[in-house]
What we know:
alpha+beta; four-stranded antiparallel beta sheet; elongated
Amino acid sequence: xxxxxxxxxxxxxxxxxxxxxxxxxxxxxxxxxxxxxxxxxxxxxxxxxxxxxxxxxxxxxxxxxxxxxxxxxxxxxxxxxxxxxxxxxxxxxxxxxxxxxxxxxxxxxxxxxxxxxxxxxxxxxxxxxxxxxxxxxxxxxxxxxxxxxxxxxxxxxxxxxxxxxxxxxxxxxxxxxxxxxxxxxxxxxxxxxxxxxxxxxxxxxxxxxxxxxxxxxxxxxxxxxxxxxxxxxx
Length: 234
């Protein structure tokens, strides 16, 4: 064990890109809640980690407050230099597991709503959700003898990042990432190939999917009412 406490700074990305996709206040609120939830659950895991003794959360100042949490965490504790790599792996594994759980709940909710509305509704998008689970976040961990050196090390790690954005639509000239529109037929190569231009019939099917999803989010029956666009613009 080291004689002096070590400061550890933790962050994940992309946060700015995640937030800037918001087109409405609801989008911004939802994105902020997701980021705050990830930070909150990460702090819980850090406090329970057996790799750091006498741990103290330096930032955020109120770690039990789930709303408006920053995406940077600073902790102080005694950590053996040999254990820092294990700690980074533990942090990385946990935040990705938390993100996977969020997506699992969202995916199950959507599929349940559509199958309740149309029992034979087919989904061909499991692989896309898998890519989303695995390729959304990058985690950075910096360390130092004080807060400043730990933050400097964190920024150095971020500058040295080796991150490749996921190419959702198969176009080598465009890294679309979360800009892409995902829909149930996205991986159904018999009827839809993302490398080719979408046909009018396919485009209408995608639009119908989002119209129905908008109704479900607003608690409406797609056969009876049109969505108001509170959550999605159809």
